[in-house]
Design goal:
- The structure is a single chain.
- With 124 residues, the chain is an all-alpha fold.
- Helix content is 83%, strand content 0%.
C-alpha cells in the first residue's frame, strides 16, 4: 500500500512537472524583450504588455507553489519526511512571488490608464 502511494505521488509529480514545463514560455530572448519594453514603455499598450508578462509570471509561480505543495504531501510519512519543510518553504516563497507579480501587473495597468489620460486630447 505504501509503495503504491509513493508510485502514485511520483506519477502525479511527474505529470505536474511535465505540464509546468510545457507552459513556461520564458527564454533568454523573452527576458531581453521585457527588459527593453520596461526601459522604453511610454504608451498604454506598452504598459499592458508588461502587465500581461507579470500576470504570466504570477501564474507560473502559483503553479510552482502547487507543485511543491504536492511534493510536500508526497514526502509526508516517508523516510524523507524532512523534505516536507523544504517544500513548504518553497510554497510560501512562490506564493509570495506570485503576489508580487500580481501587484506589479496592477501597477502597470494603472500606468496604462494614466498614460491613456495623458494622451487624450484636452477638452475645449
Amino acid at each position: 500500500m505504501k509503495k503504491s502511494m509513493l508510485l502514485l505521488a511520483a506519477f502525479t509529480m511527474a505529470l505536474l512537472v511535465f505540464s509546468l514545463g510545457r507552459e513556461i514560455p520564458t527564454s533568454a530572448q523573452e527576458e531581453v524583450d521585457i527588459t527593453v519594453l520596461i526601459e522604453t514603455a511610454d504608451s498604454p499598450a506598452d504598459h499592458l504588455k508588461i502587465a500581461e508578462y507579470y500576470e504570466e509570471q504570477a501564474v507560473m509561480m502559483e503553479k510552482k507553489a502547487t507543485l511543491h505543495a504536492s511534493m510536500a504531501e508526497a514526502y509526508e510519512g516517508t523516510k524523507f519526511s524532512g523534505m516536507t519543510s523544504h517544500c513548504e518553504k518553497l510554497v510560501k516563497e512562490f506564493e509570495g512571488s506570485a503576489e508580487q507579480y500580481e501587484a506589479m501587473a496592477a501597477e502597470h495597468r494603472k500606468m496604462a490608464q494614466e498614460t491613456q489620460g495623458q494622451n487624450s486630447p484636452a477638452p475645449q
